[in-house]
Write a structure and sequence with these properties.
This protein has a single domain (2-8, 33-301), classed as Alkaline Phosphatase, subunit A. The chain is an alpha/beta fold. The protein is globular and about 45 Å long. The termini are far apart. Strands 1-5-4-6-2-7-8-3 form an 8-stranded mixed β-sheet, with helices on both faces. It has 12 helices and 8 strands. The structure holds zinc ion. Zinc ion (ZN) is lined by residues 44-45, 80, 83, 194, 243-244.
């Protein structure tokens, strides 16, 4: 992998990335609807009732073209470390062993993030991640969750830059990558909503405004996907999800329904339309991403999630 610091200009990034074949042994090239691709957009700390109130035309458009649940579930502790671990590994805390925002003691070796798992299965998968909460991508808190085994990983410091700016910068990097590089599976993490939620509480207009600002970034990412020169030959599944909700005062970590209930979107031409029949769980995201990319989940991996929102999943 190549880890780029925030200061690296996009022109340098392009040079450093080694193109690999779009076709993979597992995913194939001759699908009826095109080469399967996944973009996962992670929005930290979104409460579903505020999402419903917010003006989010870009997320709404994804929902209209896929499966949506605002009753999906994560598990306690409802903090970011275990939440993102649940989502990206496809297993619950007893397996990945992350119970807080200190990632020391994790078992990501056994239960890696789905991008790393793809690389282990077939290194010709082109994998990408950009995060502005550094513990997800570097060793500052006993991580990283996303290993150095993926192709391209960017860590932007939200604390240093301020999260609104860091979110924009992360999306700038992702847009640049999607415009010019192979990308089979990509993860973009935006942290500002959670930071604002802690500062203002969940009922303040500033928190809703932060969700609306993130929706603008979602729109930029969707447009970047659709503007790819090879888009007509590709079958993109766009997943959007959050790691936990929050209490009225903005805090989270406990067992209230406001903290445990999350949303997820599974969108694209391969996605089922409407609400899922069963209540989805956060661990379904990684498994769904793998399924769309043609990976048959091996029971020996002991994943806890199941496929949601794709044909044959219900
Ligand atoms: Zn969080």
């Amino acid at each position: 992998m190549r880890l780029h610091d925030i200061g690296s200009p996009p022109s340098v990034l392009r040079v450093l990335v080694i193109p690999v074949s779009v076709c993979t042994v597992l995913a194939g090239c001759a699908g009826a609807t095109g080469q399967e691709k996944v973009l996962l957009i992670g929005l930290d700390g979104v409460r579903v009732d505020v999402l419903a109130s917010a003006r989010t035309p870009n997320i709404d458009a994804l929902i209209a073209d896929g499966t949506f649940s605002d009753q999906a579930q994560t598990r306690a502790p409802t903090v970011s470390g275990p939440g993102w671990s649940n989502m990206l590994t496809g297993v619950w805390s007893p397996k990945h062993r992350v119970m807080g925002n200190n990632f020391t003691g994790n078992d990501y070796a056994t239960y890696p993030d789905f991008l790393t798992r793809l690389e282990r299965i077939d290194s010709t998968f082109s994998t990408f991640a950009v995060v502005d909460w550094p513990p997800l991508g570097d060793t500052t808190s006993g991580g990283p969750l996303i290993s150095d085994g993926i192709d391209v990983k960017h860590v932007v410091s939200g604390d240093a830059l301020g999260y609104p700016h860091a979110d924009s910068q992360s999306v700038d990097i992702a847009v640049e990558h999607l415009a010019s590089e192979d990308a089979d599976a990509a993860f973009v993490y935006l942290g500002n909503i959670d930071v604002v939620g802690h500062a203002t509480g969940s009922l303040a207009p500033e928190y809703q405004a932060a969700i609306e600002a993130a929706d603008v970034q979602v729109g930029r990412l969707v447009e970047a996907v659709r503007s790819r020169a090879t888009y007509d030959q590709e079958d993109w599944l766009i997943l959007v999800c959050t790691d936990h909700g929050r209490q009225d005062d903005g805090g989270h970590g406990g067992l209230s329904s406001q903290e445990l209930t999350i949303f997820l979107v599974v969108s694209g031409s391969s996605a089922l339309k409407g609400a899922p029949q069963d209540t989805p769980n956060i661990v379904d995201i990684a498994v769904t991403a793998l399924a769309h990319l043609g990976v048959a989940v091996d029971p020996a991996w002991r994943l806890d999630g199941r496929v949601v929102g794709l044909a044959g999943s219900e």
